[in-house]
Amino acid sequence: MGKERTETPPIDTWDLSPLYASHEAWEESFENVKKKFWDEISELKGQVASQPENVKKLFHLTFGLEQELMNLYTYAHLRHDEDVAHETHKTAYDRISTLLHQFSEATAWIEPELLSLPEEKLKKLAESVDLSDYKMVLDKTARLKPHTLTAREEELLALGGKALQVSDRAFGALNNADLKFPNVKDGEGKEHELSHGLYHVYLRSRDRVLRENAFKTLHKTFLSFENTLCELLSGSVQKHIFYAQAKHYDSSLQAALYPHQIDTAVYENLISATHAHIDKLHRFIALRKKLMNLPDIHAYDLYAPAAEEIEMKFTYDEAVDVTLEAVKPLGPSYCNVLKRGLKQERWIDRYENNRKRSGAYSSGCYESHPYILLNYQGFLNDVMTLAHEAGHSMHTYFSNQSQPYHDSRYSIFVAEVASTFNEELVFRHLLANAKDKNERIFLLLQKLDGIRATFFRQVMFAEFEKQIHEMAEKHIPLTPTTLRKAYSELNAHYFGPELTLDAELEGEFMRVPHFYYDFYVYQYSTGISAAFALVDKVLKEGPRQYLEFLSAGASDYPVEVLKKAGVDMCSEEPVTALLQRFDALMDQLENEL
Ligand SMILES: [Zn+2]
Fold first, then answer.
1. Ligand 1 centre from 417 Cα, in Å?
2. How far is the centre of ligand 1, averaged over its atoms, from the C-alpha of 321 (Å)?
3. Segment 2-35, tens digit of pLDDT
């Protein structure tokens, strides 16, 4: 039996009192917010096109209301996650979620009404002195104008929206609910259940028979539905192409990247720079094979322990100290805030309790300090998670401090930069202070495996995604045959000659939910590249530009924000630097061996 929430000492929990002193205070605020500006906002409907002062008023009211709603939402979701079965908090969470939904419905007319203005007028608005506070908000809207259709056409697109979601939803239903996997046997002939969650556990096992059986059984199950799964994927790709063509984009890739002003060159350079150094991944596969002492290495060997496992355990306080020590290169302004958050202001909910939400995240809102949910166990991974989430939190903190509410939320494109950055600093710190050779080998391998999974694997996914959209755009049908061929060629190219390609691996793409996300995964790889480039810069030149990056929020487009920090994602440079670092880490590992 685990601990109940009520038995957890307050010092181990987050302090939500800066948001609301009690649930009653939350209730009061919830009732108040329902009486605020809702009517005033809807009265402006139809009035925006004529007068700029209405735009200002509209933004002021809308962002003001949204900000209050976010306070309520943040408190409710944090409370809810403490114990997801708690009646009062669960109900509060449902109520605020409903109210937020009503808010987005009540304000859904704003963007289309702004976009109904002629391009010239919209540009003028974005440049007017009176609206200079909202320059970026207006600029992002004006950007969409050339890809906005007539009111009737937009209405038709919206009407078709639900029907066009069916492929994505059907994949989700099949993958999350309907698909069942047969049991699998381990090396001693014992049977085990197989599920998505258990699959990842088995793949990390030292029992190779179990790994192989889990891998083959899982993929054979997907492959037995290959006709359906390829139709679903094709349906999703066709949806992206439909919207791209309807809205006059050159390609589905351009349509996905355009709103955040990300040039398709960013995507293309990521792939080409990786290709230029793909021998480094081949080298890693060979190294892993040698370390594991295997006659041949397969996809199901890539997550298994490759070296002796070291017990690196850290108490929570030790993890905090390691993190604070590691981020010292970021200077006192960064370190002092984080120290206060971790040691005094109780940003963190530390340990597991019964029915607490699993995993980890960083949250908070504009008017609160950041909050971090952990389920801290004391392993190396938990230390990395703390550093990672603290990275997100500090990014949010600096952006909230420096930007007005409507420019504070940074884009997904840069979302994983600050988190990965901190993980890298902690890694370097631990490596420099490792007790012995075995600890160093353990750390190095974990890092290399991490880069393989968050960089190389995601670049390969990104390339596959690009290929299948291009195939469909050229009217090549996405069938099991064409898709399997494309996917297996990529596997051969990325993993190289050392990896034995099992037939089951060809079915892997059929189970990846990210292929339904419309060019999303590449951002993991660009994020980690930018983070590594920034670590090098900070260590060489100091933290000034990096702190500016953290403070920038959404005050400019993400590629521009990174450029100002000294990292040009339109060039191959950051990616190349990451790959060189990958190579250098392998040199270090081989030296240790
Ligand atoms: Zn993250």
1. 8
2. 21
3. 889 999 999 999 999 999 999 999 999 999 999 8
Helices (H), 433-572: 437-451, 457-473, 480-495, 522-541, 544-551, 558-564
How far from the centroid of its chain's Cα atoms is residue 88's Cα?
30
Tokens 């968050």 found at: 454
- Give the closest residue to 242 by CA, choosing from 150, 476, 522, 234: 234
Task: Identify which of 233, 243, 401, 388 has the alpha carbon closest to the alpha carbon of residue 333.
Answer: 401
For ligand 1, an ion, list residues with CB under 5 A. 419
* Token duo for residue 208: 């190779």
Q: Please state, as a whole number, how many other Cβ atoms lie within 10 Å of the Cβ of residue 105.
A: 9
* C-alpha–C-alpha distance, residues 323 and 338, integer Å: 10
Q: Where in the chain is the domain with CATH 1.10.1370.20?
A: 229-309+408-593
Overall fold of domain 229-309+408-593: Neurolysin; domain 3 (1.10.1370)
Q: How far is the CA of 529 from the centre of ligand 1 (A)?
A: 14
Domain with CATH 1.20.140.70 in the chain: 5-161
Chain centroid to Cα 286, Å, comes to 30
**Per-residue tokens: 353:** 């309790």
Convert 182-228 into a string of H (helix), E (strand) and C (coil): CCEECCCCCEECCCHHHHHHHHCCCCHHHHHHHHHHHHHHHHCCHHH
Map residue 348 onto helix, strand or coil.
strand
567 CA distance to ligand 1 middle (Å): 20
Token pair belonging to 272 = 């080409």
Q: What are phi and psi of 570, to 5 degrees?
A: -80, -10
pLDDT at 226 over 80: yes
Any idea of the CA torsion for 235, 241, 246, 250, to the nearest 10 degrees? 180
CA–CA separation, 439 and 445 (whole Å): 10
How many A from CA of 74 to the centre of ligand 1? 18
Q: What does the block give as tokens for 58?
A: 């509209």
Go through 463-498 and write b for each residue having 16 or more CB atoms within 10 A of its CB, e for each that does not.
bbbbbbbebbbeeeebebeebbebbbebbeebbbeb
Residues pairing with 373 in the sheet:
349, 361
This model's pTM is above 0.70: yes
Query: Can you tell me the distance from the alpha carbon of 421 to that of 47, in angstroms, rounded to the nearest whole number?
Result: 46
Catalytic residue among 389, 416, 463, 504: 389
Helix axes 135-142 and 119-127, enclosed angle (nearest 10): 160
Phi, psi values for residue 234, rounded to 5° = -60, -40
Q: Which CATH number fits domain 5-161: 3.30.70.1560, 3.50.50.60, 3.40.30.10, 1.20.140.70?
A: 1.20.140.70
Q: How far is the CA of 460 from the centre of ligand 1 (A)?
A: 20
Closest CA to 370 of 548, 544, 545, 550: 550
> Which pLDDT score is estimated for 144?
95
- Is residue 345 part of the annotated active site? The answer reads no
Residue 65 · residue 103 · CB < 8 Å:
yes
**Range from 165-169, 307-311, 588-592 carrying the lowest mean pLDDT:** 307-311
DSSP 8-state symbol, 134 = G
Residue 306 CA to ligand 1 centre (angstroms): 26
How sure is the predictor about 308, in pLDDT bands with cuts at 50, 70 and 90? confident
